[in-house]
Amino acid sequence: MRPSLTEQVQQIWRYRELLRELFIAWVKLRHAGSVLGLLWTLLNPVFFIATYWLVFTRIIRVDVADYPLFMIPGFLAWNFSVVAVTNAAEAILNAKDLISRVAFPRVILVIASVMVPFLDFLAAFTVYAVILILTGTGVSPAILSLPVVLVAQMFLTVGAGLVLATVAVYFRDTIRLIQVFATLLFFATPILYPLTMIPESLRPYAWLNPMTPVVTLYQRVLYEQQWVEPSVLFITLALGLAALGAGLKVFGHFEHSFAEIA
User: Fold this and answer.
1) 3-state secondary structure string, 89-101?
2) For 54, which of 192, 196, 201, 244 is 20 to 30 Å away at the CA?
3) What is the pTM of this model?
4) Crossing angle of helices 174-188/67-94, nearest 10°?
């Protein structure tokens, strides 16, 4: 019998300790053998931001005020979702020996695989916030709306990850297709350019890209330092919840066969 959405949420809560242990184990495994270990979680975004800051202030000039401050939050948001979705798509296949021997909700594997890059994402935004302060730009009270954006993106990413993890069990080329699609999605998302640069006649199509509202919200809060209208936050959160619900539905429908196929 396939679990309902309510039962799936209850299972996630019931196995929250397993989720936490998986998350900790995968973070440690990723840095196993490294001299600096978890310090890389902070060093990676520092090196990334420093590189882009140098390139776009000293080498390449773009006609956008404080261009690195504009581009970085959108790139970080996009990079988190792509890495997280790729990890999620591989989660079931990478744990095929575990799921064939131990009974637990497989959704835990997907959520844990998304939480690992989310840690890097939070570290990167912490570094970005410090840079805003050091450059004199500062952080406005509008940042208080950021948690809602973070939660909405997390829901959207987990939902997409659940669907792709299911597809990957049956179609092993899914991972490569994600990488190809991610490249196309990057240039179709207003990360390197503001949304206003898209011709007005084509702008409605840009909103069909699920990353467009996410990226523009980060830019509004962090770069423009403007409050996001409550209705926009509500709609974004509702879309994230809808994506999560759809992902849980698809995943729960096929979960019973994962041990046999993976």
Assistant:
1) HHHHHHCHHHHCC
2) 196
3) 0.86
4) 170
